[in-house]
Specification:
By secondary structure, the protein is α/β, with parallel strands linked by helices. About 30% of the residues lie in helices and about 10% in strands. The chain folds into two domains: about 80 residues, no CATH class; about 300 residues, Ribonuclease Inhibitor (Leucine-rich repeat, LRR (right-handed beta-alpha superhelix), Alpha-Beta Horseshoe), CATH 3.80.10.10. Strands 1-2-3-4-5-6-7-8-9-10-11 form an eleven-stranded parallel β-sheet. Strand 10, helix 13 and strand 11 form a beta-alpha-beta unit.
């Protein structure tokens, strides 16, 4: 039987020895695709990955395999190709790193803005600026093509108070809104990216950011959010909203969850515990998303909290109380880095709508190893369970006191 997949097609790239001496890259068909991927020549590998999708499942598997490539650039090309697929390709991204399927700042290459050289690659670069550099960047002839900006708050003496840098950035951004018409991704917050997001630099009202950037797809905030504010408004294009904080008020949580964001797919909210609120207050603040009132197309929900059991129970309760429960549409539920126990996880498992999930992430919590093994052995859930790094609960110790955010 002839193997037609090995025959050159109209989209095959056939390379001669004069251009590339390595004879392994000469073959056409799927055999040629496989050999070109092994060529070690970056340009050839990139072109070949795109060609591979023309060969059905065999080619798709080659792109999926490239997710494990040691080269960051090859890995990123594979991610971008799989983001445009459905079915098996989509599942592969979720299985590798669920957030890869969504639009985040990782889709752009971060680079410090150098006024001496100006804007060089506005479509692929997320330019990192301080307040003065932002003003210089706005004078560049290519500023209207900028897609991503990273604004770092640098005043570390503003403990729990809104940094003046914050309002300088926001005011400048709003004034320049006619020039930044292509802005898709915006980060504002602490430049220190520690694992537990314990920033004490305050952020304030984000309303002007959303109003100034109608084409914004990613808004990423890192800081103390006790004074975070936002008017209830409609934004049609925001796909990703990430709030990294160890301090946020219930009022701020409610305002965030009440935004009208019909395109939002990815919502990640870090919540610590402040003296003002209890678990009941937090659940009330989260109600708009638990009942799909604000984010009807949400696919990824990440809630990292000191009230993980209460949140898990509320998510489960919404399954039979809400007309459109959150679990009916979610693909990834991320409750990692909290203080979830067997009780909270059991509440989720008892919810029938959990079968809709592709991934449940409960890493860095307080779930017992015995319960995790029971779940895996009895197939209580039919989704990818990420459950590593659980803390033990010792006698006389209450896990409600600490989450990973406060270690």
């Amino acid at each position: 039987m002839n193997n037609n997949s090995d025959k050159p097609r109209e989209f095959d790239v056939v390379l001669g020895r004069e251009t590339y001496p390595d004879s392994r890259v000469i073959l056409g068909g799927i055999a040629g695709v496989k050999n070109r991927l092994k060529s070690g020549i970056f340009e050839v590998q990139v072109a070949t990955l795109a060609d591979a999708l023309n060969y059905g499942d065999i080619g798709l598997n080659l792109v999926i395999d490239a997710l494990q490539d040691y080269s960051h650039k090859i890995h990123q090309i594979a991610v971008e190709l799989l983001q445009e697929t459905e079915g098996k390709g989509k599942q592969a991204l979720f299985g590798c790193e669920p957030w890869l399927f969504f639009t985040t700042l990782k889709d752009w290459t971060s680079e410090n803005f150098n006024p001496k050289f100006g804007i060089i690659n506005p479509e692929e670069t997320a330019y990192i600026v301080n307040t003065e550099q932002l003003k210089l960047l706005l004078q560049d002839p290519q500023v209207s093509q900028i897609e991503a900006l990273i604004c770092h708050l640098s005043r570390y003496n503003c403990y729990y108070e809104v940094s003046q840098d914050f309002y300088s950035y926001v005011d400048t951004l709003f004034e320049a809104r006619q020039e930044l018409t292509h802005l898709k991704a915006f980060f504002i917050g602490d430049c220190r990216d520690n694992h537990y997001k314990k920033s004490y630099i305050g952020v304030g009202d984000i309303t002007l950011i959303l109003e100034a950037c109608p084409n914004l797809e990613v808004l990423h905030i890192r800081g103390c959010c006790n004074e975070l504010e936002c008017d209830k408004l409609l934004h049609n294009n925001l796909k990703t909203l990430i709030i990294e904080t160890a301090n946020i008020s219930d009022v701020a949580i409610y305002r965030l969850c009440s935004l009208d964001l019909p395109a939002l797919e990815y919502f990640e909210l870090w919540m610590g515990r402040t003296s003002e609120h209890s678990s009941d207050d937090t659940i009330d603040s989260l109600r708009p998303i638990l009942f799909s009132e604000s984010f009807p197309n949400l696919k990824y929900l990440g809630l990292h909290s000191d009230y993980a059991d209460a949140i898990a129970d509320a998510i489960a309760q919404s399954s039979f109380m809400a007309e459109s429960p959150i679990l009916a549409t979610l693909e990834v539920l991320d409750l990692s880095m909290g203080n979830l126990t067997d009780t909270g996880l059991n509440a989720l498992i008892e919810s029938e709508t959990i079968i809709n999930l592709h991934t449940l992430n409960i890493a860095h919590n307080y779930v017992s190893e015995e319960f995790i093994q029971e779940i895996k052995q009895s197939s209580l859930i039919d989704c990818l369970l990420i459950a590593h790094s659980q803390e033990k609960i010792y006698e006389g110790y209450s896990p409600s006191r600490y989450s990973a955010l406060h270690e």
